[in-house]
Design goal:
The protein is an alpha+beta fold and 784 residues long. It contains 14 helices and 45 strands. The chain has a domain at 7-36 and 518-782: Rossmann fold (3-Layer(aba) Sandwich). Helices cover 18% and strands 31% of the residues. A hairpin with an 8-residue loop joins β17 and β18. α3 (175-183) packs across α4. The longest helix has 23 residues, at 185-207. It is globular. The chain starts with 9 loop residues before the first helix and ends with a helix.
């Protein structure tokens, strides 16, 4: 951890010289990243904690190899791989055994002697593996079916078979059918025989445990979207959606450069609001009797209150009737059982994403018991939904943003009492508990928003202690003996590497450095981390500054502002940046006489709820003000030339480039909008509806947030760049903007198209062509 930056020392920070960089060419900056060195990918402990293994991509190849870490990393031979575990492991409650998921198949390893037993071979889509409550077997799911492996007999068989179908034993109350059975004796006899055979089979099932369970029929009007089996094998919870609820019109994406030589078309996603997420229903199944009961959502606080009622009325839409649509949080972790199978909790969210609930289930009474509600007038953070049971089988832990920042909480399910374990203007995530539940290890950014370490949290006192001092920890694993952490870490010019550190703290032992000799030999401009004062008041806007080590007296430098993508993403951190090519490009720009600022504008990750949802119903507005503040900062403190300011970025950064040139043309002279959103009504539902609601009930939010509505204001120089097979932001976005600019008779703009690139470009030639155009744009327009 490095000391936090305070305004009182900001001037001193700015004055720190940046190292003179080794000249970089555009061709090398945009080359395949293998020249930098392939980073460490997945890493994991051996079963006994004595070794560390990791995967790494081969240079010039998509293939991956497995290495054993050490003073000199050792390539694990193919003949050894069958004995090596994987990153995907799950421990039994007593930590005597672990499950290993490798190549899609499941294995069990004894942690006493290391014996490895294969449970499945050639299984497809296996997930949700867990130990049974009695420790005698393993449960797992394939598709919608649950299976049980018995350790003693080594037999695998079905444990629960939910079916989205009508029960064949059920009869319709139909007058014609009743008449047929009354009049036709043969039909009546055949029915009685079927009923007798079915009843006898069920009688045998109850007394013969070797027989497979009967299917559980949930009806033919639903689709199964999730299910979870209790570790004791008695209960099954199933999340269903109405059948045929996917009715939105899908987009068609043409591909012009194909192997066949003919145009080809792919189906793509629907647009926001055109295919609303289907509501879930929760079914509780008693597997002893196959009785199915629905868990009503009526008890969830606020579920019947519409936070969009005023907008709905203003748009002359029908008011909401009954409860809001509710879904189980996506993924298998939305339903969590205690290790003994006696307790279960579900995490639910409203489809409008303004509420998230955690509830336990009264299994005998078939009722939900609300435990916690998180509500936000904008939207609940979809990234902080971790939760689970503590080893006492009575308490839950979860993350919540109710304080304004993501923090760790515990809840006593018997009393309903909730306790915050962490607090403050920082965020906790990626929670890992010790086996006794006494300590939680979390990712934390306490010093500054971009300085990530691992913190240890005492579950009894709430005391927080930073374990690591690497500044750029990416993720971590606790060793089997719980005495060390295995860290993935990175730095500004160091792709992800691994290290270990004792849980007591101290210096980390670095295990890898996969950078090439060529890359390590270079001297790069270290970004300066600066806090830009905000004209909106409150917290400053953190940014990375790239500038010459010494500024020439009296000289004004053209300014380039970089905008990261995704909106909710953090690029101003001590980690290796998502935009490593752009960072090298910024080195080149500084070499050519520019100063560059890369900002974590409002909406960025790592700064709490208020920072994230400042853009609610007004995308592109608070962020633009942050960038104008950044320009003023560069002019005031770094001899920036206010008359020559450029801006560029991709995806959300492309969207913001449009907003800068079209809403503040007096500030931004030129810009490059890469794979940009031009109209939010064409983007996907999952992302957009959180921020702007849906176009049918909140059309004004879409109008004020879409750059195409401001195209008439364009005065500067614009480059639009887009991959033609982009399945995230459709190429159509840029084409529509181009047509709009044509009709407005705008000058000084161009559209560069890349026939074989998707949203994230892959080919070095495309990267080079795109950034050559950006560089030429800035050279031509900002150095007059």
């Amino acid at each position: 951890m490095r000391p936090p930056f305070f305004p009182t020392i900001l001037a001193a920070l700015i004055a720190l010289p940046a190292a003179a960089s080794t000249p970089i060419t555009l061709d090398q900056a945009m080359d395949h990243p293998d020249w930098i060195g392939t980073p460490v990918e997945a890493a994991w402990w051996s079963w006994d904690g004595k070794q560390v293994y990791y995967k790494q991509k081969r240079t010039g190849s998509p293939l991956r190899d497995t290495f054993q870490a050490g003073a000199k990393p050792r390539l694990v031979a193919d003949t050894e791989l069958a004995k090596v575990d994987s990153p995907d492991v799950f421990y039994s409650p007593d930590r005597s055994r672990m499950l290993v998921l490798r190549n899609g198949d499941l294995f069990e390893r004894s942690l006493k002697n290391g014996d490895l037993v294969q449970i499945t071979r050639g299984a497809s889509k296996l997930d949700a593996a867990q130990f049974t409550a009695d420790g005698r077997g393993v449960q797992y799911r394939i598709g919608n079916d649950w299976y049980l492996w018995d350790r003693a007999s080594k037999v695998v068989g079905p444990a629960a078979l939910p079916r989205a179908a009508k029960d064949p034993a059920a009869t319709d109350d139909d007058a014609l059918r009743t008449m047929q059975l009354r009049l036709i004796t043969t039909l009546k006899r055949q029915k009685d025989e079927r009923d007798a055979m079915r009843a006898r089979t069920e009688e045998l099932r109850r007394i013969d445990p070797s027989m497979a369970p009967a299917p559980v029929y949930l009806g033919d009007k639903v689709e199964i979207e999730n299910s979870s089996l209790s570790p004791d094998g008695r209960w099954l919870i199933v999340a269903t959606a109405p059948k045929g609820s996917d009715k939105g019109r899908v987009g068609k994406m043409p591909r012009y450069v194909t192997e066949s030589g003919y145009e080809e078309f792919d189906d793509q996603r629907t647009r926001v609001g055109r295919n609303m997420p289907a509501p879930h229903a929760l079914k509780l199944v008693d597997l002893r009797t196959n009785k199915v009961q629905e868990l009503s959502f009526d008890v969830l606080p606020g579920v019947n209150q519409d936070p969009l009622a005023e907008l709905r009325a203003a748009a002359k839409r029908d008011p909401l009737k009954g409860n809001r649509a509710v879904r189980v949080i996506d993924g298998v972790d939305g339903i969590s059982w205690s290790a003994n199978g006696a307790g279960v909790a579900v995490m639910l969210r409203a489809v409008d994403n303004k509420d998230r609930w955690i509830a336990t289930v009264d299994l005998d009474g078939a009722k939900l018991k609300p435990l916690h509600r998180l509500t936000d007038n904008a939207w609940v953070n979809y990234d902080n939904n971790e939760f689970g049971w503590l080893p006492d089988n009575r308490s839950l832990w979860f993350l919540s943003e109710e304080s304004g920042y993501s923090h760790l909480y515990t809840a006593d399910t018997a009393t309903g009492s909730i306790r915050a374990l962490t607090q403050g203007k920082w965020e906790a995530s990626d929670v890992r508990w010790t086996r006794d539940g006494g300590t939680a290890y979390v990712m934390c950014n306490r010093a500054t928003p971009g300085d990530y370490e691992v913190c240890a949290v005492n579950a009894r006192t709430g005391a927080v202690r930073e374990v690591t001092q690497l500044d750029g920890v990416e993720r971590f694993r606790l060793s089997p003996g719980e005495d060390k952490l295995l860290l993935h870490w990175s730095a500004s010019y160091t792709p992800v590497q691994i290290a270990t550190v004792p849980v007591s703290g101290g210096a980390a032992t670095r295990l890898t450095d996969t950078r090439t000799a060529d890359f390590k030999a270079r001297t790069w401009i270290e970004p300066q981390y600066v806090a830009v004062p905000s004209s909106a008041g409150g917290d400053p806007v953190w940014a990375k500054l790239y500038r010459p080590a010494q500024l020439e007296a009296g000289k004004k430098y053209p300014v380039v502002m970089f905008v990261h993508g995704a909106g909710y993403l953090q690029n101003v951190s001590k980690r290796y940046p998502n935009y490593f090519r752009e960072q090298m490009f910024h080195n080149l720009l500084v070499q050519k006489g520019y100063v560059v600022l890369d900002m974590d504008y409002r909406a960025s990750k790592g700064y709490g709820a208020k920072w994230r949802n400042a853009i609610y119903r007004q995308m592109g507005h608070p962020e633009l003000q942050d960038y104008i503040d950044g320009v003023n900062y560069m002019v005031k403190h770094h001899q920036g030339d206010a008359a020559n300011v450029g801006v560029y970025g991709g995806s959300y950064g492309g969207f913001m480039t449009f907003m800068a040139l079209m809403r503040a043309p007096e500030v931004f002279k030129s810009g490059a909008a890469l794979r940009p959103v031009t109209d939010w009504t064409t983007y996907n539902h999952e992302y957009t509806a959180n921020i702007l609601n849906t176009p049918d009930i909140d059309p004004q939010a879409y109008k004020v947030s879409s750059p195409i509505e401001y195209a008439e204001n364009l005065k500067g120089n614009l480059l639009i760049s887009h991959g033609m097979v982009d399945d995230n932001v459709f190429y159509q976005d840029s084409v529509r903007m181009a047509q709009r600019l044509i009709e407005l008779k705008k000058d000084n703009w161009e559209l560069a198209s890349y026939p074989l690139e998707r949203h994230a470009y892959v080919q070095p030639e495309a990267w080079f062509d795109q950034y050559r155009r950006i560089y030429k744009l800035f050279e031509r327009t900002l150095k007059q």
